[in-house]
Amino acid sequence: MSDDTWRENALCRQTDPEIYFPERGGSTRDAKETCLACEVRTSCLEYALDSGQNYGVWGGVNERELRRLHRARRAATKTA
Alpha-carbon distance 48 to 37, whole Å? Predict the structure, then answer.
């Protein structure tokens, strides 16, 4: 999907945004379950990685997993 049009089809638009940004130590289970059923999950995750998002659940990935993906992407860029 081009640009931000994927957002229009994001399943998270139909849920409470609070579940995607839980308090420190809070559960991300509900957010991740919603993401797994979302048709634009891949576009969402790409957006998060491309725009440097570090907080919240994006494309079914929590903050720890997102940081790991950011590091892997930077490492791949350095070796390429």
Answer: 18
Q: What is the DSSP string of 27-79?
A: --HHHHHHHHT-TTHHHHHHHHHHHT--SS-BTTB-HHHHHHHHHHHHHHHHH
Per-residue pLDDT for the chain (80 aa), expressed as one digit of tens each? Answer: 457 899 999 999 999 999 999 998 999 999 999 999 999 999 999 999 999 999 999 999 999 999 999 999 989 888 86
For residue 31, give the amino acid letter. Answer: A
Tokens representing 75 are 């490492």
Structural domain total, the chain: 1
**Could you tell me the pTM of the whole model?**
0.87
